[in-house]
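Structure first, sequence second, as always.
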């Protein structure tokens, strides 16, 4: 896998992972179904999926060459980007009008 494909793979995984907590009503994506699921569970899932995406990025970076050390700024910017990528799921879950079923 070349570097460009690895970057696109991590970005695609980040978009999917950032939106996944908002589209699933299961606790930690595999547990019991909660309707509605508490915001705390969604935040915990968001953090865990961000860490998994970061791990995927580190794995691909080490496969392509030497891993570069990063400071706290990298992690802060990465988490902000991850939260921003999850905005469509947030809108779908909390801001759209729900149709009430009779």
């Amino acid at each position: 896998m070349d570097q460009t494909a690895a970057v696109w793979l991590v970005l695609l995984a980040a978009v999917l992972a950032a939106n996944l907590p908002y589209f699933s009503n299961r606790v930690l994506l595999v547990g019991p179904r909660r309707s509605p699921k508490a915001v705390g569970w969604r935040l915990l899932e968001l953090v865990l999926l961000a860490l998994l995406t970061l791990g995927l990025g580190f794995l691909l970076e080490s496969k392509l060459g030497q891993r570069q050390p990063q400071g706290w700024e990298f992690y802060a910017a990465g988490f902000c980007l991850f939260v921003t990528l999850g905005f469509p799921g947030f809108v779908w879950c909390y801001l759209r009008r729900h149709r009430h079923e009779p």
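Margin note: The helical segments are 3-23, 39-64, 72-85, 87-95.
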